[in-house]
Each structure stands twice: as C-alpha cells, then as structure tokens.
Amino acid sequence: MLGMMIQAFGDDHVLWATDSIWWGSPQWQIEALRRLEMPPVPMERFGYAPLTSQVKAKIFGRNAARLYGIDPQARRNPVPADYVDRLRKQYKEAGNPTPSNTQYGWVRA
Predict the structure, then answer these.
(1) Residue 107 pLDDT > 60, yes or no?
(2) Would you list the domain boundaries of the chain?
(3) pTM over 0.70
(4) Please, what sign has the CA dihedral across residues 92, 95, 100, 105?
C-alpha cells in the first residue's frame, strides 16, 4: 500500500501517523518502517520506487514540517535551566564524581 500511495501522490505527500494516544508507543512500527525495503517484484511489476532513507525522512517528518511551515534545520530557543539543572551544575562544580545509574544488589529472578 505504501508503494501505491507514493506512486499515486508522490513521496512529498505521504505523512507518518499513528493512533499511539490509544495504544501506546509506536516505536516498534517506526523501527519496522525504517527497516522496510521495497521488494524487487513490486518494483518491477508495478514500477514502485525504492524506499530510500530520504523518502523515509520525508514520510517521518519532513513532509509534515513543510506542511506546517517548520524549518527542521532552524535553531530553536534552548529550554530554560530549571531547578534540577541548577543542582546538576552545583554537583559538578563541587568536584563530585559523575553520577552512575548502576544498581547494586539487584538479582534478576
């Protein structure tokens, strides 16, 4: 179906969308589409174009960015420092070691 949509409308007019608000993270679907390649038989039989990384980038967000007038390369305002960020800076300035997320004493059952 993706090949049909790209052939009919062009890769500049196909957008990525999910119903993840109801069913949770669509990460597995994103990974699946990133790995997807157009099989040779439909490309030969129907004239479908290959799914290049550029085509996938358009589908995943560049087409939507263009539609909403967003420049993906534009520099954005940084998120202002919050209380946790200030504590992190104080911790580093005090010469404390880099924090570790290693957990000791946990046994996998």
Answers:
(1) no
(2) 1-98
(3) no
(4) negative
